[in-house]
Amino acid sequence: KPNFKDAKIEVIGISADPVEEQKKFVEKHKLTYPVLSDASGEGRKAYHVGKGLLGMTDARVTFFIDKTGVVRDVLDTTINFGAHSKFVAKWLETIAAEEKKGVQARVWDIEK
Question: Which stretches make up the Alkyl hydroperoxide reductase subunit C/ Thiol specific antioxidant domain (predicted)?
Fold first, then answer.
């Protein structure tokens, strides 16, 4: 559980579980970021997040969205939980290097 509090980043979790289950999950795991309920599935639909593990479970997808609102990259791996924090850490390094060089955000056209 890396701590991204010192980084200029906002972490938000979103799950298909109802609000009451989200509250329990956040308390149990002492999460320091908000976890939102997408019980209706509208958020998953908007970001084209389907099922993982051959359709047996909800997918675990991490989006890295820069400060201009551009989705810079997406990691879709349901069982490798550690990969998600490494993915974010890698992007934080990339963004820091770009800011140091004065690079503006790139726009990527991503099709899935």
Answer: 2-73
Does domain 13-111 fall under CATH 3.20.20.105? My reply is no
- pLDDT in the model for residue 57: 64
> Per-residue DSSP letters for 13-45?
EEESS-HHHHHHHHHHHT-SS-EEE-TTSHHHH
pLDDT digits (tens, 9 = 90+) for 48-103: 787 766 666 667 788 888 888 888 888 887 777 778 888 888 888 888 888 788 76
What is the C-alpha separation between 64 and 88, in angstroms, rounded? 7
Domain ranges of the chain: 13-111
Q: How far apart are CA 73 and CA 87, in angstroms?
A: 9
SS3 93: helix
Q: Two tokens at 19?
A: 């609000």
The tokens for 64 are 């890295």
